[in-house]
Amino acid sequence: MAMGAVALVANVICLVIIRKQRNEEVHMRASWIFSANDVIANLGVIFAGVLVFWLDSRWPDLVIGVIVSCVVLRGAKMILEEAGNERQRALNAQS
Predict the structure, then answer these.
(1) Which of 8, 58, 65, 76 is most buried by its number of CB atoms within 10 A?
(2) pLDDT number for residue 67
């Protein structure tokens, strides 16, 4: 949980740094999505750790792990769509 907290601070700092560029080029939008997903994952790790300790069960870790994986897959889908849109705009500009 301590490493999750340290990583959370680092990822929030990254979000603050890139927030002004998050709507510009596709690589900056992807960086924003990556960092936002990392913040969610860090919060999930911390929350799961607390629940596992409190409930003395591994189920919170498994459930939150599945939720975090869904968030990450959603982010990957968004990035792929953004890259595809950017590629299509570039192809349209060339013709």
Answers:
(1) 8
(2) 95
Q: What's the domain range around 31?
A: 2-94
- Report d(CA 75, CA 95) in Å as an integer: 31
How far, CA to CA in Å, does 83 sit from each of 12, 36, 49, 71? 24, 18, 35, 18
Among residues 84, 77, 75, which one has the least CA distance to residue 35? Answer: 75
| Cα 24 from Cα 42, distance rounded (Å) | 26
Q: How far apart are CA 45 and CA 51, in angstroms?
A: 10
Answer for the pair 47, 64: CB distance below 8 angstroms, yes or no.
Answer: yes
